[in-house]
Amino acid sequence: MKKMKIIIFDVGGVLQLTDYDDIGKGGHHVLGVHEYMAKKYKKDLDSWFDSIDTPYAKSIDKKIPRIKAIKTIANNLKTTPKKLTKLFHRAYKKNFKKNRKLYSLAFKLKKQKYGVGILSDQWYLSQDILTSKKNVAGFSPVIISCNIGLRKPDLKIYKLLIRKCKCKAEEILFIDNRYWNLKPAKKLGIKTILFKGNKQLIKDLEKFGIKNKRNHKN
Ligand SMILES: [Mg+2]
């Protein structure tokens, strides 16, 4: 087997976890955020989703500019963009927890000379929190859907990933909690792991010759 050069991490359900993650089954991990927001605006979940619907969906792959998306949703909810932004930020902060063990594993792998990167679908207001500068520091490439106008599982985003990694597809290992996001990657020759938890991931990494070493010295 070819030696892996770079390990790419998904964010939602992998580097950032929620209570809603039914890991590996593609759980709706942003549900907590939407429940929180719906409650704040005194709506049931269905009418909440109706209020954010198109601008939210179009934001994930940049089909609508940030200001327009936030303004439209704020108008629908009869609030201001500023208040809406503040609440959304709070909702993401409250509902997501950094997977610290995985972060520390990623940095250990970096010490072992593996590249570590991020490939994540976010919209403008989740990006501010979940893939903030602080949360992506040390990772390269960092590919976020709402910045580039492509989202998973569009084949093009994986082609972009390969270009940005500047290595062969077979030397890239991509970790995501949703199997449908892994499919196109596999098709292009990228190696993949379906994330179901930190322990399972460490075991699966070993299959690719990647070890979670405590004190690695070169
Ligand atoms: Mg995910």
Please tally the helical runs, counting DSSP H or I stretches of 4 or more residues.
11
Average pLDDT works out at: 93
Rg of Cα set: 18 Å
For the termini, the CA-CA separation is 22 Å
Order of H and E elements: EEHHHHEHEHHEHHEHEH
In CATH's first tier, which class of the largest domain applies? Alpha Beta
Structural overview:
This protein has helices at residues 31-40, 45-60, 66-76, 81-95, 100-111, 124-130, 133-136, 145-148, 155-165, 179-187, 198-206, and strands at 6-9, 16-17, 97-98, 115-120, 142-144, 172-176, 191-194. With 218 residues, it is α/β, with parallel strands linked by helices. The protein has 2 domains: 6-26 and 98-206, 3-Layer(aba) Sandwich (Rossmann fold); 31-95. A 5-stranded parallel sheet has the order 5-4-1-6-7, with helices on both faces. It is elongated, with a radius of gyration of 18 Å. It starts with 5 loop residues before the first strand and ends in a 12-residue tail after the last helix. The mean pLDDT is 93. Bound molecules: magnesium ion (MG). Magnesium ion is lined by residues 10, 12-14, 176-178. Magnesium ion binds next to loops.
